[in-house]
## 1
Amino acid sequence: MNVVDEIFEMFARRGDEAYFGEPVSQTEHALQAAHQAEEENAPQPLIVAALLHDIGHLIHGMGEDIADRGIDARHEAAGEAWLARRFPPEVTEPVKLHVAAKRYLCQVDPAYFGMLSPASVQSLALQGGPLSEDEARAFESHRYYREAVRLRRWDDAAKIAGLQVPGLDHYRPALEAVARIQA
Ligand code: FE
């Protein structure tokens, strides 16, 4: 099966599950994040990163109440590992850094914490809380940190119940263009 069909199957199988404590499904969340990326004319790999940033949730097989049970599923690491065999760093690095980007924004943007949803505040604690000032400077040394911060803001805003946005098929050409050629 090619990468794109594999991704579509994962969304078909698990995408209707709720997005951890938010009023949208996993698929709706992904589509809303990708749509914002496209609206901001983000480069194609970053649109794909927005679409796939939580693919780790579709892989790991844990229930939707993991944060309630005090478990940080480390979904960004699971997602990055899966994506790394299929996509270039322009996709995988922002995905890997999108949780750190939330911790970073809590340090550098005083208004940011107040915009987080209750579920996101809860998971922040499990993810280690805000970065320190030194950690924030270190985060800025990542080559893809700006992309990760952009992705993070789309992620945070991709939780609107009932919002009409383009469907998965809309992103097939971008996925095909950005995915590594399969052996
Ligand atoms: Fe997300």
Note: The domain at 3-182 is CATH 1.10.3210.10 (Hypothetical protein af1432).
## 2
Amino acid sequence: MSVLKLYEYPEPILRQKCEKVSKVDDALRRFLDDMLETMYVDKGCGLAAPQVGCTKRIIVVDPNPSDEDLSARQPLHLINPEIIWHSDETVLFNEGCLSLPDQRAEVERFEKVRVHYTDYNGDEQEILANDLLAIILQHEIDHLDGILYIDHLSRLKRSRLLNKLDKYRNECKKTKSAQ
Ligand code: NI
């Protein structure tokens, strides 16, 4: 397995609409393994293909990406995931994204979603998700349509967050050049 390069905001690939996968083969499974590895290394609980430079409709998620207890992990690979039902109720959650490092903001999501997808073996599956998993799935499926969580914020909140991201990146550069 290998760790893939992460594409960060404002890379144009993060804004592309991804294409459906037509065949689940070994090459695709290797890519899914690499995506999952990259997600764990970068301490995320979800990752979408465009974040690692691929415009296919693929996501990996794990609502419990524990480093201490590997058996507690709950990895899921979802190919061509599609939300086929959602609850009327919504919840607010403080979301982050590996493509916008060190930032978080509260986003409104559906409390429950039912998702249809193709799994690692190429079989059709459905999952009814609530709590954190439902939020992660909505965030990652958004990525496949070029949507980032900051698009759900007001213009003011979004520009504040992007200013903080700039500051954070400048601090990282300074720290690097001082070493
Ligand atoms: Ni994200």
Note: Residues 37 and 58 are 14 Å apart (CA to CA).
## 3
Amino acid sequence: MNLDLTILPGDGIGPEVTGQAVRVLQTVADAFGHSFQLQRKNIGGAALAASEDPLPPDSLQACISSSAVLLGAVGNPAFDHYPNHLRPEAGLLRLRRELGAYANLRPAICFPALVECSPLRPELIRGVDIMFVRELLGGLYFGEPRSIEGEPGWRVAINTMRYHEPAIERIACVAFALAEKRRRKVLSVDKANVLECSRLWREVVTRTAKDYPSVKLSHMYVDSASMALVQRPRDFDVVLTENMFGDILSDQAGGVVGSLGLLASASIGGPVGLYEPVHGSAPDIAGQGIANPLGAILSAAMLLRHSFQLEREAACIENSVGAVLAQGYRTADLASAGQKKLTTSEMGSIVVEAVKKSAEAVSTAKERSA
Ligand code: NAD
């Protein structure tokens, strides 16, 4: 298979972590006999510095014409005073919309070796395996009108939460289809006691559930869900929710399983999938070579699974990450007192070696069975 990708390293630690993810992808491609073509383009602050546009036309065109996009992170405090449409984050929001990527999948998994990294007690966190399905193109982040108006001292800020029935139905279908391959449970999170958007959300999700009779649907208000996520995270399986609630809850889950640096995501639904770690550009540690690249590497695994249906290759990366963690390798964000702290590229190299070993084992097993 030809893996033709656009890489958008972005800002801060983005180039550091995507560099390691690309090494891992190249190793998997070599080991499993795929060809690998990539082009690197600017987005976010890096693009603003070069062209005064957070998503320049040639970056967008490259993304649209490739089979999948791997992004690092966007965000640079130097542009925080820029108007909304010229901030680095505007480039990412526009890219998601242009790619039609309405379904954001965010797994939050507690790796057995990292039970001690969670702020929760081991008996609460062991075995946690949650899949957040977040609606990505609606709600407050995109709704119009939006503005800050009026005289200083009397200004009014406006954002609009808006949801159309078809947008709710299509994201619900993604959640139910995923649940069919997991524990057959969907929890839909809303704020139906207060918000009209949530009332419509609940009605449409309930109606859509009838097409998936093997899946059990339940509902929870977002405030209760946020509390339950720390009290009994193991009860959660597929969590279906709108854009902003999903943004917040999935980061909270990152804290629950140990480190934001581990979390991967896939934004799918349109013709080209977009894959990125959940974390941001982490300006506080950028340039130091200490960022955890595993979220980006696990995003590359999601890319192989969802854009190329290469399940075996995706599992090879995920198993290699699990093995590396089980052997005690840690970046600074995961290391406890006395543990050696690997740099970003050292962690990348160790995963590359583990992927080679795992791929060899797969091909030996295949030869034996042939
Ligand atoms: P952040 O995720 O960048 O960082 C939060 C904390 O987690 C920081 O202490 C950081 O050092 C740490 N961290 C994050 N990723 C890590 C990794 N891979 N390894 C080790 N530690 C890691 O969030 P923030 O500080 O709120 O935002 C910084 C910038 O990133 C802002 O400009 C924000 O808008 C942007 N942002 C972008 C995205 C995205 O590109 N999808 C997501 C969130 C935030």
Note: The chain has a mean pLDDT of 95.
## 4
Amino acid sequence: MHFNKHVFTISAAALLLANLLLPDAAFAQKIPSLKDAFRKDFGIGTCLNNAQIEERDPATTAFIASQFNMATPENIMKSALIHPKWDTYDFTMGDKLIEFGKKHKIKINGHTLIWHSQLPSFIRGIKSADSIRTFFTDHIKTVAGHYNGKVYSWDVVNEALNEDGTMRKSVFLQHLGDDFVTEAFRLAQQAAPKTELYYNDYNNEQPKKRAGCIELIKKIKAAGVRIDGVGIQGHWHVGKVPFQDIEESILQYAALGVKVMFTELDIEVLPRNFQGADVGARMTANEQSNPYTAGLPDSVQQQLAADYEALFKLFLKHKDKVTRVTFWGVNDGDSWLNGWPIRGRTNYPLLFDRNNQPKPAFEKVIALKK
Ligand code: G3I
């Protein structure tokens, strides 16, 4: 007893000393690695913001490189940023991301060529279908062409569907008609023959939206155009993860001959009156809307861990169909869910806390591989 206590005291002291003496980067290596644990099953990704791409904090860079082998730019490849003016493209940050990927052996998923949101402001001034078509064609050719052979894959079209499976009334649908999705893939295939091409959406595990998504994929294929995979974003809510719909979707999408990916995974723990990720949606703050500023209660922490454990069990069960699982953020502090649908909340949707320390959800996920 006395001996055990002694050993414990020595090892605790050693740990403390290591914590103090080792640079964060070295200490980060002591946390088991997600990408290594799941290496034989599927890729493990994160989204990256400007500070991370620019490697402003070496400890963060080392942590990212130790945990992830795939990455998606959170914002910098969206059209508003990469194509700010009619005849001006800005590849500065995108090119830095490519370098980041090369240096740290991280495959990059380009995000995203055609999306109704975060469009350049000049689009608002365009009234003719011809000009929209010119923008659409030039944008895909130029951006996909620039990164051909540099990015591993593209989210060619993002969020083209409504919840009922019909097509969203975007500027592209209005001016170019139903075929714009197929056309986007055709142009991307020509400009980026060496790149995998995906359709990406949220709630497309839900039966009606899934049916619309299946129709889209069939239509692209029927036109003789290549589509390699479908992304289910995976913005879910704690205690309400739709496991059955997710499994059904993996099976139905895979039956079409496309890869299935979970592309923006996070699990919301704060009060919300709707599911999904419509960036236009907002909620009004009240006294109940930001309840966990002092920390996450244990009951919620355990539910979050159980949800992540069940999700990864499902992903492993279908590892022959699921090729990548990407988290939408490295740690809780990075998450867009701190600012949406209400600004300034304290959210806890990921596997690592604000200091990149593993949460109980991480322990449950990594334990599946022990
Ligand atoms: O960069 C400007 C900054 O200059 C300005 O001062 C500040 C003021 O609000 O805004 C900054 O831009 C913000 C940008 O993120 C970069 O931080 C935008 O307001 C904000 O709207 C934008 O949010 C992004 C959102 O997409 C926009 O649609 C989130 O970071 C990003 O996580 C989120 O990602 C989307 C996926 O692309 C598609 N699926 C849904 C997912 C979550 O919404």
Note: The chain has one domain: 36-269+292-367.
